[in-house]
Design a protein that fits this description.
By secondary structure, this protein is mostly helical. The protein is built from 3 helices and 2 strands.
Length: about 100
């Protein structure tokens, strides 16, 4: 992908960034370097490479999915100001 100084100025204008000619030229050089790097990375054949979720071969240790707390539903319902059909009743705040 090739950009011109006018393209860089247009992008800067769209982003509401004030940029002069020397800054636009410098930015164009940096963007060209980035695009060249991307092109060289895309040129590499990765058909036999298996995708990885992490750069290193690490796994997250997960605990067993088991219940560790007792059911206190009845206790919480007993101390609520108003309960009906196992639902908490609250004052209406929107008319």
């Amino acid at each position: 992908m090739t950009l011109s100084v006018n393209d860089v100025k247009r992008i800067a204008d769209l982003a509401y960034i004030e940029i002069n000619d020397s800054e636009a030229t410098e930015t164009l050089d940096q963007l060209s370097g980035i695009f060249n790097l991307i092109e060289s990375m895309q040129a590499v054949d990765t058909t036999e490479v298996e995708p990885m979720s992490h750069a290193q071969n690490v796994f997250q240790r997960l605990r067993e999915d088991e219940i560790t707390e007792t059911d206190q539903h009845a206790l919480y319902q007993s101390i609520a100001p108003q309960v009906e059909a196992d639902l908490y009743l609250v004052p209406q705040v929107i008319e």
